[in-house]
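Entry 14: structure prediction run for Sister chromatid cohesion protein DCC1. Input pasted below.
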Amino acid sequence: MAPGDSKYVRNIEDVSKIIQHTKLEENTLLPVTQALYFADEVKEYKLLELNKELLKKLNDGVTLTFRGVENDKAVLCCDNKTYEVKEAETSNSLLLVPTLKFPSDVTPSTSGETDERILEHKTVLGVYHTYYEVKVCKPKVKKLRIILENSSYRGSEMESALIESGAKLYSTADLLLEIQASEAELHSALRELFAFDLNGKWRVLEFDYHTRVLAYLLNLIDAQSWNIDDIPVNEVIEILTDLVPPFIIQHIITVYCEPVPSSSDNPKVCLIEDRVCRTLGEELLRSHSKYELNEFLKIWQEAVPPGLTTKLAQLDGLVYSLNSSNRLEIHFCPEYLLPEDINDRMHYLFGLKDKWTFDEIKPFIQIFTTPRMDENGILTKYARASKVNGVKYFSSRHGK
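Run finished. Output tokens:
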């Protein structure tokens, strides 16, 4: 190396000497040798390890996007899945060499016609002991309900006041900037919230307005003596148009009814029992968050249209039962208002009551299930089981 040179550049003779020192036979080695040199300036890169599925999507032209706003933990989204991103450490040194060749890259076309050794110089752009790995996770869509309820639809006469208030309306593109979910998962969450597109913006109905329009529909069915399994759509829209915009009537019909075969040009629908009962049950619970169970069941059944049957299972994720002063009570407890962190949620649930059966607690922890861990796995990890009179209960791991 000449005086003043910053690095020594290896030559073929150097390579041959090293091969001799290692006591290897040169004819057993691939004919390409790569000499590594560290760059004079190291740029800041982050290393991300992708699984085979994500790598294939990337190679197929699918866009991978990091999503999250300030203070969010970043997630990586493809077209249909969300991945949590975590930093991992390695005791080995990871060298970033963009043009490095692997054995499979060395072919006759790159090694030449002869057996002469080829020396290639490669630049190391960085040395790393950490990298980011990804793991499939549930989309983080709890925020979606809050965003949409801030601009909920309360009737056409309230739209100008909503706009004047400065409430933000969200398109799909806007939501993807805020919600940590893939586009497919976002649309799935929008369907679960019964959201609808109005002039390119996603909206939900304000709950009181929602139940009022549903009441219009149910009262009309009763007044017209229509069978709940044979409701004429065109007549519903025509009669209710003076009270509610037609697109809202159609939306309520879509949410609470399903099509039935009809030979006429007037489509027919039938009520979806579980959905109607759940909303009317929630309406009762919002007005009075605690009931004696038998009293509630009686009031609830009287509130639904004749021909529909109420069942407590229809309120999964909205209520829990509690023995109090020798009577069984039902308490309003919407799952979507509970803590988003699994540890915080379990602490909250066991604060409501000491012991839960599997069927009682399941609706409140389903959101945390993954392909590798179901509700039983979650309870094994975060609760302890016991039996009382042959019934299995789950309680806090740190309880008395």
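Notes: Residues 273 and 399 are 40 Å apart (CA to CA). Will compare against the previous run tomorrow.
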